[in-house]
Amino acid sequence: MDDFNSETDSDYTSYWRDWFISSRGNEYFCEIDEDYLTDRFNLTGLNTEVQYYQYALDLVTDVFDLDCDDDMRETIEKSARHLYGLVHARYIVTTRGLGKMLDKYKKADFGKCPRVMCKSHPLLPMGQSDNPNVKAVKLYCARCEDIYNPKSSRHSAIDGAYFGTSFHNIIFQVYPALIPTKSSERYTPRIYGFKVHAPATLIRWQDGERDDMRKRLRKLEIESGFKDDVEDVEAEDSEEEEEDEEVDMEALENGGVVGADVKV
């Protein structure tokens, strides 16, 4: 910091934020615009959440000039990181913040889904609580709609509140074209080519429940997101036609009355 003080004010702008973003373990964060940080409305309520709030804000906005010892400096630095994280959760649901996170998502900066059937679909960071110090950050896959732990231990230490519980859903509301096609592919356990009985039974039950759910969604004219829905609709239509033909044949055999008992 002493070496950098000799530079001009324009060079000094955003230095702390640049350092924070480029630090190992902070790859999930995007840079918050300076005008967002200097608008006190965006920081409402954070003064009660962060120790040495004003000093931390001065450090984040690069106007910190307090002469303090190393211990105090370290405490303020910790508070500045916490403040940045809390503001970050608010910033990434704004239009500007969503755009920056979208760029990182497209480059798979947050990692790729470890599930083989998802075929390396990119992930999004998310929190399981909006309150800090409750849950660490998780990674959400929009294809299988499940969450995973980060691979790196340095990312596992990030507080989930720095991303919030809504960001990963809001981004798909704002950019609906990003919603991936859901995959119905499942791994089927086999022994010498034959399905393992217990898992096979579970899979059949899960498939039946999913098919029932998709039928209900189609009746309500709600898009389920599965790519093979059209094929299922055509198959159901053909099954209904076959059932209608069987009913007609039964009616003819029973003298025109469907299901009538024939007495001799």
Automatic annotation (TrEMBL):
GO molecular function ontology, one term from the record: kinase activity
Cellular component GO terms held in the UniProt record: cytoplasm; protein kinase CK2 complex; UTP-C complex
Annotated InterPro entries: Casein_kin_II_reg-sub_N, Casein_kinase_II_beta-like, Casein_kinase_II_reg-sub
BP GO terms, sorted: regulation of transcription by RNA polymerase III
Keywords carried by this UniProt record: Kinase, Transferase
Source domain of life: Eukaryota
UniProt xrefs under SUPFAM superfamilies: Casein kinase II beta subunit (SSF57798)
Region described as Disordered: 228-264
Protein family according to the UniProt entry: Belongs to the casein kinase 2 subunit beta family.
UniProt subunit comment: Tetramer composed of two alpha chains, one beta chain and one beta' chain. Tetramer of two alpha and two beta subunits.
Protein name according to UniProt: Casein kinase II subunit beta
The organism's taxonomic lineage, starting at the top: Eukaryota, Fungi, Dikarya, Ascomycota, Pezizomycotina
